[in-house]
Specification:
With 391 residues, the chain is α/β, with parallel strands linked by helices. It has 15 helices and 12 strands. It has 2 domains: 197 residues, Glycogen Phosphorylase B (Rossmann fold); 185 residues, Rossmann fold (3-Layer(aba) Sandwich). Helix 6 links the parallel strand 5 and strand 6.
Length: 391
């Protein structure tokens, strides 16, 4: 959303589509007084939440979203479409619409959805899961090959892109960022923390999705073991993982496990500021493609971070390489607890990590140079597309 606003501010007409049925903390999705005249923001699909727990319903909803998004693209007739975070079944409708109408298509590659599907589906759907996984692996390769260009969020995608015989010039790497101006560092004691009774004691905060790539058991164990007296584990999330934690909290009587629903986006700076330590989790991965965006937002907050993820993940390299906190092995609950305890025992180190995290954000997340890279890349795609599709 920040990129759309920045490009519109440079005089481009930007039609920003988003999926209304996705639940979660989102940026401002209304055109405001400060937005350029060329910006349009439109929600696509119904408001019924995406059925993440039902494979059949989710497949139907993703296809419906893809058809509707493709129809809106066909009506808008843009020069180029930049598409991110779109399920593969929806994405094929969008790519098809672009190809039929001579519209340039750039795949903003945030993750390899087919690799995740190949890991999950055979375990969740006996017999047919393996067939579905192979279908998704082939579909994602096809969609990447049909893209006019690919923007990968990490250099770690290079091996995969080369393995499907894409030439080096077919992709660029632009690291993700967080909207620094929307996520200012706030004081530990703030109105949001006061409203939720979180101004005293120690807060270990986890925000964002608790999906298949995360392990809520680690959060439960952390609350049960209390790495320090008067410690709370605060989880701001919704969905399957949050529901599981709620049931376990009731069963175990954990008064120091605080569960809150997704908060308004405007409250996010104060939510993160209420933390003494911010926590991020990833399950062990065969490939380090997924880069949790919450880690980038955490850096803006100026708080020490404990990240449980594979060492090769880009988020791990950021946290470790820039001294923003501690990185422990993915899925290692005891190591998470120990890292949290060590940071709580060392106020000086925790404060230094917090300052380095904010400094990294300030040095890396400036929207103007990022927008310039996208602007130049999109312009090249449009020019090449016009030359190869005259008329």
């Amino acid at each position: 959303m920040q990129l759309s606003r920045a490009l519109a501010g440079r005089g481009h007409r930007v039609h920003h589509l988003h999926c209304r049925s996705l639940v979660g903390a989102k940026a401002s999705l209304d055109v405001g007084e400060g937005d350029a005249a060329g910006l349009t923001i439109e929600g696509v699909g119904g408001k019924r939440p995406m059925a993440k727990g039902s494979l059949v319903r989710r497949l139907a909803m993703e296809n419906a979203y893809g058809r509707r998004a493709a129809a809106r693209i066909a009506a808008a007739r843009p020069d180029v479409v930049l598409c991110a975070n779109t399920p593969l079944d929806a994405l094929r409708w969008i790519v098809r619409a672009c190809r039929r109408r001579g519209i340039g298509f750039v795949n903003w590659l945030q993750d390899l959805n087919s690799v995740a599907a190949a890991d999950i589906l055979p375990r969740r759907v006996p017999v047919f899961g393996g067939l579905a996984a192979r279908r998704y692996l082939g579909l994602e390769r096809s969609l990447l090959r049909r893209s006019d260009h690919i923007v990968a969020i990490s250099e770690d995608f290079q091996g995969y892109l080369e393995s499907i015989n894409l030439p080096a010039g077919a992709w660029s790497v632009i690291h993700n960022w967080a909207p620094l101006d929307e996520l200012p560092a706030r004081p530990r004691r703030n109105p949001w923390a006061e409203r939720h009774g979180l101004t005293h004691g120690i807060n270990i905060v986890y925000t964002g999705n608790l999906g298949l790539k995360h392990n809520p058991q680690l959060l439960l164990d952390l609350a049960r073991n209390r790495p320090a007296p008067d410690t709370r584990v605060v989880v701001v999330s919704e969905g399957i993982g949050a529901d599981w934690l709620a049931s376990r909290k009731r069963a175990l009587g954990l008064d120091n496990l605080v569960l809150l629903p997704f908060q308004p986006y405007a409250a996010l700076p104060e939510v993160m500021a209420a933390a003494d330590i911010l926590l991020a989790l990833l399950e062990p991965q065969t490939q380090p493609y997924c880069v949790p965006s919450k880690v980038l937002s955490y850096c803006c907050a100026g708080r020490a971070i404990v990240l449980s993820a594979d060492a090769g993940n880009l988020a791990s390299r950021i946290v470790h390489g820039h001294g923003c906190g501690r990185v422990v092995a993915a899925g290692d609950g005891p190591a998470v607890a120990e890292a949290v305890s060590e940071l709580l025992r060392n106020d000086r180190e925790r404060e230094a990590c917090a300052q380095r995290a904010r400094r990294y954000a300030e040095q890396s997340f400036g929207i103007e140079p990022i927008a310039s890279r996208f602007e130049e890349l999109l312009a090249r795609v449009v020019e090449r597309h016009r030359q190869s599709h005259p008329g």
